[in-house]
Design a protein that fits this description.
five-stranded antiparallel sheet, eight-stranded mixed sheet, alpha+beta, homodimer, SH3 type barrels, Fumarylacetoacetate hydrolase, domain 2, 403 residues
Chain lengths: 403, 403
């Protein structure tokens, strides 16, 4: 084996202990793939080298069959790829430089749920959006608040983000206006990708998390704050969110994050259906950069509700899971200003812009701004696992029907 | 041709002027089908008799390809089925009694959006849920309020509905409890099924409605009012709705509802992006029955925002449409008590139960209750088009994780 490229892969955070799953156009076909360093292993072509994973799962043109196959197949895939790439001298010939393939959205998104599980974020937003009410709603410490987003506009990292048009009611105005959002924001989130479905009417407990969830993607839940503020009462966010949600192109399997497990924050007593006998979360160190300047470092482990509790809550009414369901943590914000996951919080609603390298003062996003969310976690070998980044460049508002 | 069965089909509201699209298991395969009276025409087997509709669209195991194909193919399908069934002597031999096939969910649901477009419903609910605020939120007359629901739990008419468990906060209690919903309700709605997708970043105007929307299904947006009341602030309904949404099994094409077109209610001035040069809605006469007693007759034409305006609003931020997107009107309520689309309204929040035949007093739904939503519209021939009914029987709450 060529130890040089494997060494470089490991140092990039995409080594043999990571092996995230994605979907590419390579060798003339759309197929599932595993990333290793700056190369990809397309799985269809390698199917006969990845026993005991059933070949038909590897030869699909999506990742759905692999995601649905469950923990044993996920483990078999991981071990067989590690064996192939780690010990076979010709392994590199099965891989392709990532620059030579088209990297696609890594899974077909079924339902998309967005939670609101960071206490610091909920407090910060409550103060800004509802200054006359308690910062934390009365239900917040009893249940992980969440809502459904638009799965049809979940896009792959790198997809340009058009500034949305929409209705807003400018401060001091009685009537709303329609036009490009002037308060375009990001939300730094961590998303969980469901592989194994569940039956309608059968709740899934927090303990059963690892039997259903394949892995993790970083999420940018783009938000037009001015549209959101005017529309969201009484039925929640709609067009202020539904124009685009960006996700990382490689799903990090939970198996690669074993060393990142950590107990979650201390919780107030919860109803039994939200109990997790082994409460845990993930110590993911996130970073938000705008035009190359890191403006925040949100700590995911500070999120109040765990991924297992979110899953248990989401299915507690009997709602079924489907392969490809995505649920995101909600904006991750730590207690410090340099740890918040949105510009709304970072700039106090735009009132306190922050300087970027080169002198630009960052309030909300301007056309041409480049946003990058990245993250790492401890790896078993003492190094780091790199979560696939989420990037997006803001494009000017497009035509509106009114034009 | 056998005029007797065709005459009976016409009298049932499923005659040659209707021809709704669905999906069945018949002749050993899953396929698209058209309903005629109490029979179905499976389309795969009849593909060579339905020129000029491309055979590959008819031979798919879902309706997606036909829905995506657009207005010209929709018209060709309609005319070729009318020609086949209306003039060919052997046509009945191509059909199968509906009792001999398994009728499935008629389309793969992409995103599900639920609007809130009935002014009477919004006022009634506002008074009950937010007694200290104006009944109509300040944004209501400026935009059609809506939110995303769970597409993975949209089920076919007839699917049993398990009473959901969930968190509620009983009146007078400081802390919430977890258990079966005690305020299980219905919402009588009309849903619109998108066929032709749109591009991300490209708004779809109200005028373009007929180029994208294939047809109409009745919808029961089951609602657990006690879960909803506790969870819905600040991000909207979630588990109070996501346990199940039932839809009719046959999509009525818009072409069958030409005679039902009627101007919508007079509107206050709207922003230009919501203008419809030919404002219209559909005069659909709906009926809600519980255990065989009709308890309400909601008039769809009273809905404030039109289906075209809902489409324009939903895409005004550039959100893309996908084949199979379902958007529902929101609960349809007319001005009279006998015209409301929910038991919440009909019984004043449960305080004023209404008698069913046989003496039962109906408040919210009890286990074993059978709910039926039906509807008709004027047909071109002076008769009626029957919308496919939506039924569901309430089953006792299932196990909860806590048990």
């Amino acid at each position: 084996m060529n130890t040089t490229w494997m060494q470089a892969a490991s140092e990039s955070g995409f080594g043999l202990d990571h092996l995230p799953l994605g979907r590419v156009e390579a060798a003339g076909r759309t197929q599932a793939a595993v990333r290793i360093g700056d190369r990809v292993l397309p799985l269809a072509a390698a199917a006969d080298r990845l026993s005991p994973v059933p070949a038909e799962l590897l030869q699909s043109d999506t990742t759905s069959a692999l995601l649905a196959a469950g923990p044993q197949v996920w483990a078999d895939l991981r071990h067989s790829v590690q064996e192939l790439l780690g010990t076979e001298a010709d392994a590199i010939t099965l891989t392709t430089p990532i620059r030579d393939v088209k990297v696609l959205l890594p899974f077909d998104v079924a339902d998309y749920v967005d939670f609101y599980s960071s206490e610091h974020h909920a407090m910060n937003v409550g103060r800004l959006f509802r200054p006359d009410s308690p910062a934390l709603p009365p239900n917040w410490k009893h249940l992980p608040i969440g809502y459904h987003g638009r799965s049809g506009t979940v896009v792959a990292s790198g997809t340009p983000i058009g500034r949305p048009n929409g209705q807003t009611r400018p401060t001091g105005s009685a009537d709303p206006a329609f036009g490009p959002s002037e308060r375009l924001d990001v939300e730094v989130e961590v998303g969980f990708v469901v592989g194994v479905p569940s039956l309608l009417g059968e709740p899934v407990s927090a303990e059963a998390f690892s039997g259903h969830v394949y892995g993790v993607v970083l999420v940018n839940d783009w938000s037009a704050r001015d549209l959101q503020a005017w529309e969201y009462q009484p039925l929640g966010p709609f067009l202020g969110k539904s124009f685009a949600t960006s996700v990382g192109c490689w799903i990090t399997p939970l198996a690669a994050l074993e060393s990142a497990r950590t107990p979650g924050p201390k919780q107030e007593p919860l109803l039994p259906y939200l109990h997790d006998p082994d409460p845990w979360t993930l110590a993911l160190d996130l970073e938000l950069a705008v035009n190359g300047t890191v403006v925040s470092r949100p700590p995911f482990a500070s999120t109040y509700y765990s991924p297992g509790q979110q899953l248990a809550h989401m299915t507690s009414n009997g709602a079924a899971l489907r392969t490809g369901d995505l649920y995101a943590s909600g904006t991750v914000s730590g207690p410090e200003r340099g740890q918040v996951g949105s510009l709304l919080e970072l700039t106090a609603g735009g009132a306190e812009p922050v300087p970027l390298d080169g002198g630009r003062l960052l309030g909300f996003l301007e056309d041409g701004d480049e946003v990058r969310i990245s993250g790492t976690a401890a790896a078993a070998n003492g190094g780091r696992v790199t979560l696939a980044e989420v990037t997006g460049r803001i494009e000017p508002a497009g035509r509106s029907v009114a034009n």
